[in-house]
């Protein structure tokens, strides 16, 4: 008897775009100073665009030096009253902001995705919930500050300037603002030029929460506004997250001025897979380590170190898994990899990938149909990489992973530490003792064991070497915003 | 033979399985997915109280689950105890719906190998197209992998042309490492399908267990080129859960596995939920449970 094989149906997910009709975005946003949106001193409005379509979303006022000075004056004026509030009262405002972020989570997630190109799955499940969690966490610290710094008497620094990057716009704003405010500082936040929108919605939330005027100012703009902030004599501290090159300029500028500084800069983090790892979960962790947020993650596991005995197996599985990544419309709820944040960043990725090919590494990019408009880069795997290749040394900040091999644990540690950076690392092994031994030997601010890119407001985050200094998150994140009185 | 386990990280596997549960399946994808899920069902009744009458009613439902919705296909098979195989076989003659029988001292498997073989032979003689056997958890937990495999190989022989599904009863194995190991043993011993559960234990085809077994199948196929199917049984009682299992298969083994020849869902109550969800995609509102027959 012959059995007629049933025609196999190819079952695919229908498009599932998140609705945008609930958004209440304005056509134009001013600067947020003294609790009000206001016009910049020199009228300069620049559209912010959706990197997935290249279409403008809204016109954004860019701050100039005069606006920066005005914001600093307002913040200076507000600071003593803010610091003089009973600690618990400051905490209440932060709790209120956290709850409002939760209430407006859907709107914030959609705007984050529109403005930055990241998949909705991530803005909805990671960025926005974590931003709220950071405010909740530091709201709880507001009346326990002295216990955060070994039972010493502490005081706020004063007025702080905070410059955040475009890869996690709202989350980085939360990382910066929440501890600063909890400690009694007032803050001036400069969001990144390509992703100002959620910070401006956060300004609306500050209004809704009735945060006292001047406690938070938000000044969108480019490097000019950032430079004005750094050069201004009126600040007590600068906190910067961004590229190592800019971080270096800031540190030079601040030298000898008695202004506090924390820097969270680039990385080329090693993700180390040992032969006794749970292979499929390691592969999942590699994917999450490098393709999360299109690889626009300072701690991305971009240097993949695999023990030679399992090299072929892991690469085969990784390549097969990469083939299942869904690249495309960031608003689609089933998209895994979204758009590259800007034309400038796309160019940088393309340049480094071309360098990798020229230097002789073997490139594989997954076959996927990319939209006609917008900025896109297919997830890419480089094998036969040597430690000297540019793609093994320089931060690509894109969906590109470079694979290196090692033979022994000692070699893994040596290779992992052989970097000018030291932000994060991943260890994949089923052996607990080995994991701790390796973690202690790594010069990296964050070490994940059998997971990657997991963030929590209770855990300190920060780097060694050219990845910067200072810690954010947990009690350690209070220290950069406090002065020990006695 | 000393046992060497491959590692499965519990946190990692459950995270990945849950992540795939968040796939958004709407509109045409939902309709198509539901039809696919129905076509893969092993509609099951495994009660002490089963009678010929009950089995015949279930067979009628299996052939035509929703007379008012003609595009809903027949299910893949009816799954019954060996004593009901002849009844099912007769009721299903010429319909294309297969007859599956549990065997080997289902569900505990705590009988002699001879009794298991006899049980299997009886079911096959009565006309079963498919045999759902249970592994000896006793042998597996005692570390006797050889006995587990030998039993499966002997039952496979006794099956003749009938397809063999090997039930691991994952809730009794105690860890994902064990689930993966048992999957490998069953496939190496000749299983045509590996199946999660009997439906009689405390837990069934949880997303994590399904994913571990699907990854084991993928690795087995890569190594041997022999196709092995997967059956999720136990605890899949809603459309959402059924679609989640389809997503797990699609994104682990690929589209080639989305056919009743390679994928089955063992359940009973899920069918009416699938029908209600299907009707909702057409009418835009949830129906009443009375809209579909209960057997």
Give the SSE layout.
The complex is a heterodimer of chains A (486) and B (295).
Chain A: E1 28-29, E2 31-33, E3 36-38, E4 45-50, E5 55-61, H1 65-84, H2 87-103, H3 105-116, H4 120-141, H5 145-148, E6 154-156, E7 159-163, H6 169-182, E8 186-190, H7 197-208, E9 216-218, H8 223-231, E10 237-241, H9 244-254, E11 260-264, E12 270-273, H10 279-291, E13 303-307, H11 311-322, H12 343-358, E14 362-365, E15 380-383, H13 390-393, E16 400-406, H14 409-417, E17 421-422, E18 424-428, H15 432-441, E19 446-449, E20 464-465, E21 468-469, E22 482-484
Parallel strand pairs in A: 1-5, 7-8, 7-10, 8-9, 10-11, 12-13, 12-18, 13-16, 15-16, 18-19
Antiparallel strand pairs in A: 2-3, 4-5, 6-22, 11-21, 14-15, 17-20
Helix pairs in contact in A: 2-4, 3-4, 4-6, 10-11
Chain B: H1 10-21, H2 27-39, E1 41-44, H3 52-63, E2 77-80, H4 85-92, E3 98-102, H5 113-125, E4 130-134, H6 137-141, H7 145-159, E5 163-167, H8 176-188, E6 193-195, H9 207-224, E7 229-233, H10 239-252, E8 263-267, H11 270-283
Parallel strand pairs in B: 1-2, 1-8, 2-3, 3-4, 4-5, 5-6, 6-7, 7-8
Helix pairs in contact in B: 1-9, 2-10, 2-11, 3-4, 5-7, 7-8, 8-9, 9-10
Instruction: Quickly give the structural class of chain A.
Output: alpha/beta
Helix content of chain A: 25-40%
Mean pLDDT over the residues of chain A: 96
CATH class of the largest domain in chain A: Alpha Beta
Tell me the number of helical segments of chain B per DSSP (H or I, 4 or more residues long).
11
Q: Care to count the β-strands of chain A?
A: 22
SSE-based structural type of chain B: alpha/beta
Strand coverage percent of chain A: 15-25%
Evaluate the radius of gyration of chain B: 18 Å
Radius of gyration of chain A: 23 Å
Which descriptor suits the 3D outline of chain A?
globular
């Amino acid at each position: 008897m012959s059995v007629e094989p049933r025609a196999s149906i190819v079952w695919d997910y229908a498009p599932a775009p998140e609705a945008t009709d609930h958004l209440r975005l304005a056509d134009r946003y001013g600067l947020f100073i003294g609790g009000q949106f206001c016009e910049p001193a020199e009228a300069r409005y620049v559209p912010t665009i959706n990197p997935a379509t290249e279409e403008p979303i809204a016109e954004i006022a860019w701050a100039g030096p005069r606006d920066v000075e005005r914001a600093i004056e307002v913040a200076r004026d507000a600071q003593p009253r803010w610091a003089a509030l009973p600690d618990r009262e400051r905490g209440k405002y932060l709790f209120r902001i956290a709850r409002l972020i939760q209430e407006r989570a859907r709107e914030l997630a959609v705007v984050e995705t529109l403005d930055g190109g990241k998949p909705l799955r991530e803005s909805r499940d990671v960025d926005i919930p974590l931003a709220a969690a950071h405010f909740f966490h530091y709201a709880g610290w507001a009346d326990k500050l002295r216990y955060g710094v070994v039972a010493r008497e502490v005081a706020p620094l004063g007025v702080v300037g905070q410059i955040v990057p475009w890869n996690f716009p709202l989350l980085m704003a939360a990382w910066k603002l929440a501890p600063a405010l909890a400690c009694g500082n007032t803050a001036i936040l400069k969001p990144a030029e390509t992703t100002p929108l959620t910070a401006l919605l956060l300004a609306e939330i500050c209004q809704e929460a009735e945060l006292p005027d001047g406690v938070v100012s938000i000044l969108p703009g480019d490097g000019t506004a950032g430079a004005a902030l750094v050069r201004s004599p009126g600040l007590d501290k600068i906190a910067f997250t961004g590229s190592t090159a800019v971080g270096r300029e800031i540190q030079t500028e601040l030298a000898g001025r008695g202004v506090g500084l924390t820097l969270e800069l680039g990385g080329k983090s090693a993700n180390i897979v040992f032969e006794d790892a749970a292979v499929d979960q390691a592969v999942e962790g590699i994917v999450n380590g490098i393709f999360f947020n299109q690889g626009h993650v300072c701690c991305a596991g971009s240097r993949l170190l695999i023990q030679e005995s399992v090299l072929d197996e892991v690469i085969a599985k990784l390549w097969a898994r990469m083939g299942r990544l869904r690249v495309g419309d960031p608003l689609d709820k089933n998209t895994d990899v979204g758009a590259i944040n800007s034309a400038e960043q796309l160019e940088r990725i393309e340049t480094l990938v071309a360098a990798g090919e020229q230097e002789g590494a073997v490139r594989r990019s997954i076959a996927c149909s990319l939209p006609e408009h917008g900025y896109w880069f297919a997830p890419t795997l480089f094998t036969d990489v040597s430690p000297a290749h540019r793609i093994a040394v320089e931060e690509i900040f894109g969906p590109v992973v470079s694979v290196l091999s090692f033979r022994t644990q000692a070699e893994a540690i040596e290779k992992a530490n052989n970097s000018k950076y030291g932000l994060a690392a991943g260890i994949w092994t089923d052996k607990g003792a080995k994991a701790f031994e390796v973690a202690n030997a790594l010069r990296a601010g964050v070490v994940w064991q059998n997971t990657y890119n997991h963030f929590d407001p209770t855990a300190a985050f920060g780097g060694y070497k050219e990845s910067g200094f200072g810690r954010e998150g947990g009690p350690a994140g209070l220290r950069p915003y406090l002065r020990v009185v006695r | 033979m000393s046992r060497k386990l491959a590692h499965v990280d519990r946190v990692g596997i459950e995270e990945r399985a849950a992540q795939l549960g968040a796939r958004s399946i709407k509109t045409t994808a939902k309709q198509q997915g539901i039809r696919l899920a129905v076509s893969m069902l092993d509609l099951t009744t495994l009660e002490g109280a089963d009678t010929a009458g009950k089995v015949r009613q279930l067979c009628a439902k299996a052939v035509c689950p929703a007379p008012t919705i003609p595009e809903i296909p027949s299910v893949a098979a009816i799954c019954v105890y060996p004593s009901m195989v002849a009844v099912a076989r007769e009721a299903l003659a010429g319909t294309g719906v297969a007859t599956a029988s549990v065997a080997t001292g289902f569900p505990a498997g705590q009988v002699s190998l001879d009794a298991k073989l006899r049980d299997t032979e009886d079911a096959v003689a009565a006309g079963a197209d498919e045999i759902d056997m249970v592994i000896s958890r006793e042998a597996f937990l005692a570390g006797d992998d050889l006995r587990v495999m030998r039993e499966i190989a002997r039952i496979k022989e006794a099956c003749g042309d009938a397809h063999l599904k090997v039930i691991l009863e994952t809730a009794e194995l105690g860890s994902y490492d064990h689930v993966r190991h048992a999957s490998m043993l069953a496939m190496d011993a000749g299983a045509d399908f590996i199946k999660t559960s009997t439906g009689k234990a405390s837990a069934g085809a949880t997303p994590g267990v399904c994913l571990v077994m699907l990854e084991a199948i993928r690795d087995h196929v890569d190594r041997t080129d022999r196709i092995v199917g997967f059956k999720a049984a136990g605890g899949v009682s809603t459309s959402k859960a059924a679609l989640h299992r389809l997503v797990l298969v699609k994104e682990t083994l690929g589209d080639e596995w989305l056919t009743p020849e390679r994928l089955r869902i063992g359940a009973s109550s899920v069918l009416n939920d699938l029908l209600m969800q299907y009707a909702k995609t057409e009418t835009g509102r949830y129906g009443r449970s009375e809209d579909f027959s209960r057997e």
